[in-house]
C-alpha cells in the first residue's frame, strides 16, 4: 500500500477509477435486477465488475513493482495524423534530445508546456509502419501529467503541421 501512496498521481487516479468503474457497473446491474428482475443484466455487470477488479489488480502490481517508464520533456510539436485516432507528439528533454510519441487525439497536449508521460514497460516490437506500431502499443500508455508552461519559448522550434 505504501508503494501506491508514493506512486505518481495519474497512475493512482487510473487505479481508483478502474476500481470505481467495477463498483458502479455492479450497482447498476443490481438496481436493474431489483427493479426489472433481469438476471442476465446482473450476471453481465458482475462479470464486468470482476474483470475490472482483475485489471485493477494487475495495474496495482505494475505500480507497486514500478513496471512503468516515464518520458519527461517539453512539447515542441504536434503533428495531426489524418484519418487516424492518434497524433504524433514531439517531446524534447532537458538535454535537447527529441522523441516522438503517438498518443490519442483526445489528450489535451499544448506546445510549450512540460509534460511527464507514463508507459508500461514492454518489449517494443516495431514493424516499420506507424499505423501498426501504434496499434501494437495502444495499451502501453498509462497517463500523463502537466508540469507547467515553459518560461522561455525562444528555444522551441516552429510548430510542425
Topology:
Elements: H1 2-6, H2 9-36, H3 39-64, E1 68-80, E2 86-92, E3 98-104, E4 113-120, H4 130-136, E5 141-149
Antiparallel strand pairs: 1-2, 1-4, 2-3, 4-5
Helix pairs in contact: 2-3
Mean pLDDT: 83
Low-confidence stretches at least 5 residues in length (pLDDT < 50)?
Answer: 157-161
Share in helix: 40-55%
Strand content: 25-35%
Number of helices: 4
N-to-C series of helices and strands: HHHEEEEHE
Structural class: alpha+beta
Distance between the termini: 45 Å
How do the strands of the widest beta sheet line up side by side?
Answer: 3-2-1-4-5
Global geometry: elongated
Number of strands: 5
Oligomer: single chain
Largest sheet: 5 strands, antiparallel
**Radius of gyration using CA atoms only:** 20 Å
Write up this protein:
With 161 residues, this protein is an alpha+beta fold. The protein has 4 helices and 5 strands; from the N terminus they run αααββββαβ. It has helices at 2-6, 9-36, 39-64, 130-136; strands at residues 68-80, 86-92, 98-104, 113-120, 141-149. Strands 3-2-1-4-5 form a 5-stranded antiparallel sheet, with helices on one face. A hairpin with a 5-residue loop joins strand 2 (86-92) and strand 3 (98-104). Helix 2 runs antiparallel to helix 3. The longest helix is centred in the first third of the chain and has 28 residues, at 9-36. It is elongated and about 60 Å long. The chain starts with a helix and ends in a 12-residue tail after the last strand. Mean pLDDT is 83; it is low at 157-161.
Amino acid at each position: 500500500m505504501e508503494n501506491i501512496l508514493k506512486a505518481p498521481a495519474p497512475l493512482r487516479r487510473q487505479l481508483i477509477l478502474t476500481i470505481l468503474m467495477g463498483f458502479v457497473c455492479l450497482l447498476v446491474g443490481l438496481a436493474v435486477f431489483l427493479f426489472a428482475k433481469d438476471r442476465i443484466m446482473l450476471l453481465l455487470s458482475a462479470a464486468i465488475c470482476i474483470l475490472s477488479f482483475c485489471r485493477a489488480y494487475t495495474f496495482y502490481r505494475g505500480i507497486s513493482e514500478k513496471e512503468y517508464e516515464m518520458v519527461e520533456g517539453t512539447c515542441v510539436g504536434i503533428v495531426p495524423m489524418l484519418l487516424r485516432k492518434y497524433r504524433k507528439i514531439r517531446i524534447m528533454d532537458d538535454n535537447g534530445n527529441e522523441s516522438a510519441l503517438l498518443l490519442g487525439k483526445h489528450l489535451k497536449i499544448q506546445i510549450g508546456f512540460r509534460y511527464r508521460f507514463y508507459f508500461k514497460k514492454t518489449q517494443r516490437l516495431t514493424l516499420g509502419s506507424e499505423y501498426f506500431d501504434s496499434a501494437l502499443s495502444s495499451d502501453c500508455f498509462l497517463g500523463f501529467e502537466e508540469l507547467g508552461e515553459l518560461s522561455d519559448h525562444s528555444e522551441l522550434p516552429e510548430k510542425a503541421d
